[in-house]
Amino acid sequence: MFNLFRSPGIEEITPQQAYEMASSGEVMLVDVRTPEEWAKTGVAEPAITITLQDPQFLQKLEEATGGDKSKKVAFICASGGRSMQVAQALKQHGWENVYNVTGGTSGSPTQQGWIQLGLPVKPYQG
Q1: 63 flagged as catalytic
Q2: How far is the first Cα of the chain from the last one, in angstroms, to the nearest whole number?
Q3: What is the largest CA-CA distance in the chain?
Q4: Counted domains in the chain
Q5: Residue 96 lies in a domain
Q6: How does DSSP assign 84-107, residue by residue?
Q7: 125 within a domain of the structure (yes/no)
Q8: For residues 40 and 108, which has the higher predicted lDDT (pLDDT)?
Q9: Domain span holding position 36
Q10: pLDDT value for 14
Q11: Residue 82's domain is classified under what CATH number?
Q12: Portion of the chain with pLDDT greater than 90, in percent
């Protein structure tokens, strides 16, 4: 089956891999969903939150990474679509090590998500 979210040049990792990599400090995990989504489901335990809808998204990401475009950053959304879009856009703008978390927080038709896998979630502190 053709996967609309798949993109050449963007490495995809599972929620379990993202959890392990983020917990060990190997990668920064960024949740790009909306504050309403974060409040509803909580946020993946090691993730920072920067909504894709924020006009200062790129500035906030650069602050979080110290402006280091070689830093490993994994993006997570609800199912993997928005996070793939972010990864693609950043790759085109010189970011070297971007990852998409397949299945996202809530899962997709082809992949279990963070919550379904029982990975730790923290309440959103809006």
Answers
A1: no
A2: 39
A3: 39
A4: 1
A5: yes
A6: HHHHHHHHHTT--SEEEETTTTT-
A7: no
A8: 40
A9: 11-119
A10: 97
A11: 3.40.250.10
A12: 87
**Does residue 47 carry a pLDDT above 50?**
yes
Per-residue pLDDT band at 4 (split at 50, 70, 90): very low
Spot the catalytic one: 10, 21, 74, 77: 77
Position of tokens 């998500």?
A: 113
Give dist(CA 113, CA 95) in Å, integer.
25
Q: Say what the pLDDT of residue 8 is.
A: 57
Structure tokens at 126: 């809006």
Over range 32-57, report the average pLDDT.
97
Residue 3 lies in a domain: no
111 falls within a domain: yes
Per DSSP (E only), the strands in 3-116 are 11-13, 28-31, 43-44, 48-49, 73-76, 98-101
Q: In whole angstroms, what separates CA 70 from the centre of its chain?
A: 16
Q: What is the dihedral of CA 10, 13, 18, 24, to 10 degrees?
A: -80
Residue reference for tokens 């790129």: 58
Please, what is the Cα angle at 124 between 82 and 6, to 5 degrees? 15
